[in-house]
Amino acid sequence: MTLTSVRPTPLLNISPLTPLRVALLGCGVVGSEVARLIIEQAEDLRARVGRPLELVGIAVRRYDQRRPGIDPELFTTDAEELVSRDIDLVIEVIGGIEPARSLILAALRHGASVVTANKALLAVDGATLFEAAERAGADLYFEAAVAGAIPIIRPLRESLVGDEITSVIGIVNGTTNYILDRMDTAGIGFAEALAEAQQLGYAEADPTADIEGFDAAAKAAILASLAFHTRVTGADVYREGITGITPADIASARDIGHVIKLLAICQLSPPIAGAADRTVSARVHPAMIPRSHPLAGVGDAYNSVFVESMSAGRLMFYGPGAGGSPTASAVLGDLVTVARNRLRGAVGPGESSYAARPVSEIGSVMTRYHLSLQVADKAGVLETIAHAFAEHGVSIETVRQNGRNANAQLVIVTHHARDAALSATVRALRKLDVVREVTGVMRVEGD
Amino acid sequence: MTLTSVRPTPLLNISPLTPLRVALLGCGVVGSEVARLIIEQAEDLRARVGRPLELVGIAVRRYDQRRPGIDPELFTTDAEELVSRDIDLVIEVIGGIEPARSLILAALRHGASVVTANKALLAVDGATLFEAAERAGADLYFEAAVAGAIPIIRPLRESLVGDEITSVIGIVNGTTNYILDRMDTAGIGFAEALAEAQQLGYAEADPTADIEGFDAAAKAAILASLAFHTRVTGADVYREGITGITPADIASARDIGHVIKLLAICQLSPPIAGAADRTVSARVHPAMIPRSHPLAGVGDAYNSVFVESMSAGRLMFYGPGAGGSPTASAVLGDLVTVARNRLRGAVGPGESSYAARPVSEIGSVMTRYHLSLQVADKAGVLETIAHAFAEHGVSIETVRQNGRNANAQLVIVTHHARDAALSATVRALRKLDVVREVTGVMRVEGD
To the nearest whole angstrom, how far is the Cα of A173 from the nearest Cα of chain B? Predict the structure, then answer.
């Protein structure tokens, strides 16, 4: 057996048998799977890292989080004490802002490298973490923070770092994708689909973070920051959830050969000669996409990320976006990489935010709308409505009338326009006498 | 503008303005695009690396390979002299075994890190290159060698390094995918589809390497080596091309809801209690896959790689598999990574072949066959044929009879069996009196 991946640098005069010491913060669904793999796959991990990995402690909130198969002596409720020990690698899978942030910062201060799955924290305060890692000369890796097991962070940070990425569009929340997929394929309503998702463990008892798009917005902030070499926080991301999606919306999408997905959309504005800096935008909202679009076929609780760049063209990444095992796979991949770096006295890529691009408001982003209107069925209605669009500089791609008399309905799909002009048009339509009700408003993407 | 990605180590006392010196070997479709990007994107590359990249020379076979927009002084026909200069990073995009191998080895001996797109060389003699890089303490990166712009090497080498990959199935040759896609969608024959591919620049004047599966076999060797932490060479890969595929085969696949793709299939045998080492297999051949399989929808000259692992589950990567720009994107990503490593006095992951797994012959791999037979239309035919299958321990999943009398045809799909048993069954069928002709034999995958 040859260990050709092991190249200890002259900096390290420790024995090849001295293990790297690993602390695990959190032992829930992901943490317990990470612990299991570190213990059960010890032999392979040792061969791949070139040094054994020793799990020296697991911080839990309460002792009843201890797991069978894991030495009970490893558990501690004192996470602060754990990260202050002589630790090489800290894995943070607690989630949330505090105490995760303080613990990660303490770990970095003590010289440990950190692997985290914490998208919420990275989206709120990534800059503080990256700067702390930088100061400490330690690694901060977070492949598990976006799209679970799908390798997307490393491709953006490294594989595509010589290219110019122009857009990243992803289905990055499995819970909402499951709900929308069920509404589409089983014809059930939002509440019923949510209840199903909760029963299957795809949605939490309090599903707010998923269904209101907060989780996807955090991931969009991380993706936009990496793709465009700038800083985008969760607060910069325009956000709409899926709680308002009705079976009528699903049917409207179907009528035009589309399907509704909750998308995270990150875009770099095109270069305009003589204009100021190129801007970035990041938004999360439900949108109708053509059933022929590669993201349309992403069913169940799967995730997928679609990347466009100047040289590489169109790339897609697909896989399970959540769950203990897939997330643990991403954590372990980072753990091995960070451990290898440490043995060589090196660090991987840090934050790259040199481009420092302004973030556009949703109003100035170019989008398309699909509108359903209940209208009075009389002569001149279409003219009045068309006038409202024209006044806002919005061009209509298609209009279709369904039903007659009291049930007359207009379905309108616009061309691209500034989102502010489109939403102003909707406000104007709502005030028209001939419009009984605007029954559906949704963005259309992916054409 | 802050350059937070720059973390010069104390090892390097050179000025932050001293450029890293880059030599480019080869200036064909890929090389000229790489040169263009290094020159035109210099500002972004400097920011991302933390140091300017200076293109100091381009080795070409003949001076008429010089390109507009590139300083003619950079060109040289003396590649050996170029790599012996004081170079930090060498990009090899000549392709083929020699002189590429000697030049890469010389570059490593001189202390340069190497980025290469050379799948043929890696598949034939990767071990020599990896060992030379190891000895030199330099990097050898090769994301562009498999599936063009699709990040697949880095995910296998790093993202999934904490997981156990059990299979990698890919469409890794764009030329053959284009040909098969056209045969399927346009109903044309192999020769016509090949001529089209040549006209579009998807196939070379001598298309042997593509259509006979040599190119895909080289990529399969690289993928299997990385996925299973072992050494697999091109010679270890079972290989069949697509020159024998007929419109009748395409129609047969369609009849059972399948489509024919040229697949590169790398598998790790399941663990068997008490058995010897787990083995790996790598093979390239056309196969029928269900139209519902994610790889079935990969059209045109696109590539896609499907990975299954114990923890991550099923992942898919999709994108353009060839062409100057996409391949250049992969080369530039490696260039930035290798340059960053160099500035930190570090190297990335080397070869990981510790598992040293035996490679299985095709005969012992479990596969399924689809067979079309012209048979005598008389009583007892099916019994005689079923007996031939049973004698070889091969179980039949479905039999269908098409036509009558002189045109009686049997279409048989088997269950999984050892490939040797399946091919022995075909040989036995050919000798039966009741079998007029075996008109089609193809493996079935992806169920």
Answer: 16
